[in-house]
Structures are given as structure tokens and as C-alpha cells.
Amino acid sequence: MQTLKSKVLLAEDDLSLGYVIKDNLADAGYDVILCPDGQAAIDKFSKDQFDICLLDVMMPNKDGFAVARKIRQQSDVVPILFLTAKSLEEDKIRGFETGADDYIVKPFSMQELLMRMEVFLRRTKKMHSDKSVRFIIGKLLFAYTDLKLSTDKNIFNLTQKEADLLKFLCEHPNRILKREEVLLNVWGKDDYFLGRSMDVFITKLRKYFKEDPQVNLETIHGVGFRFNIPV
User: Fold this and answer.
1) I want to staple 55 with a disulfide (CB 3.0 to 4.6 A). Which of 64, 154, 197, 224 is the partner?
2) In Å, how far from its chain's centre is CA 200?
3) Tens digits of per-residue pLDDT, 50-69?
């Protein structure tokens, strides 16, 4: 049971399923707003504060991908979980590219959904408790709390996931990190599709590191990565 009610935005056009999910989440202590289509979800998110969003992929009046993009324009922090009947690889990759944190394939158990939600809500709470977390990376200054990576000449605004990944790398410099270790600590589970998403974020971080040739995020083939930085 939640001590303080976390507010959930649930977008599901199958209202029978939507009310089942809403009632179960309410029993678990969540405050749930159910929207019957994507546009309604966008309108609700624009007017209210939510702690987590659960989005069906296939919906009328804006699908889940469009809703996720709109949410990410307003917040890099709030977790987004897709509820999807599809298990196609391209749909999952597309979901991560639009800003989703995870996906659950229908049919799913409420226990599984609750566990996944709690993982992301704990992470968000911890992030808010990390006051002014900063790292020196060669010539780069990384302000985790402010989602900024800066040099004397440039300031880069990071997404929350980029910042979470970079923070984990900074906490374990100059040593080999296994792929599954990074996935478990940053994404919450070791999963093929999350691994594909991680590779996209690794590529993005490497572009920032071009500001300092001494900083190198090395791929150790078949194993993982090593974040090489000046001591």
C-alpha cells in the first residue's frame, strides 16, 4: 500500500480492461485517472501532475507513441510504461525511441504491473532526493540533478535516461561493466529490447564526449563497456 498516493495516468481504449486495471491500482493505493483515448490523455497530462503514465499503444485520437512524445515534451522525469498487445521488435524499439521507460505485453498479471510501477516510482523518488549530484569528467562538468553536461564553451541538456546512464558510468569509472549490469542498474532489468535502447543512448553520450579526447566510452565486445576518464 502506498503511504502517499501516487497519481497514475492510465490511457486504455478498452474500457473493460481499463476499469479492471484502475480498480486494482486503486486497491493497491494509487490515485488513477482513466482516459479512453490518446488525445484525452494528452489533455489530462497538460492540466495535472502525474507520477507515472501507463499508455496503451493502439488507441484512437492519437496512439500511445504520440502521447509519449507529447509527455516527453513536458517532462523527462515521469516514467512511461507501454501496455501493448504487440510483441514485435520494431514496436518496442519505437516505444523506447519516443521516450518510454518500459513495456508490458498483454495479457499481464496485475502483480507484474505493480512491481514494474514500483521500480520506476522508487527510482524517481531517489532521483529527487539526490541534491546537487555533480561529477567532473575530464574537461566536462556533469550536473546530474540539473540534467546538464557542460564545458567552457558548450552546455548540453540531457534527457533523464541519458543522465541516469551517465551517472552510473561516472560511479564506476575505468573498469569493465557488463551489459547486463548496466541494464539492471539503469533500466531495472536485463532485456534484449532494452539493450537495443541502451545502445542508442551510448551513441548519444559518445557525441558529447567528443568535447574531450581523453574521455572515451569503450565497447568491450562480448562483455560490455569501460568508461575511460582521466584520474
Assistant:
1) 64
2) 13
3) 999 999 999 988 999 999 99
E runs forming strands in 6-130: 7-11, 31-35, 52-56, 80-84, 102-105
- What is the pLDDT of the chain when averaged over all its residues? 89
CA separation (Å) from 139 to 64, 167, 229? 40, 16, 10
Say how far apart CA 155 and CA 52 lie, in whole Å. Answer: 29
Chain centre to alpha carbon of residue 186: 9
Tell me the Ramachandran region of residue 131: left when phi exceeds 0, alpha when psi lies from -120 to 50, beta otherwise: beta
- Compute the distance between CA of residue 90 and CA of residue 86 in angstroms, rounded to an integer: 10
Provide the residue count of the chain. 231
pLDDT on residue 76: 81
Domains and CATH numbers, the chain: 7-129 (3.40.50.2300), 134-228 (1.10.10.10)
Burial of 115 by CB count in 10 Å (0-12 exposed, 13-18 middle, 19+ buried)?
A: exposed
Question: If pLDDT is split at 50, 70 and 90, which confidence band does 2 have?
Answer: very low
pLDDT tens digits for range 172-215? 999 999 999 999 988 888 888 889 889 999 999 999 999 999 99
| Greatest distance between any 2 Cα atoms in the chain | 58
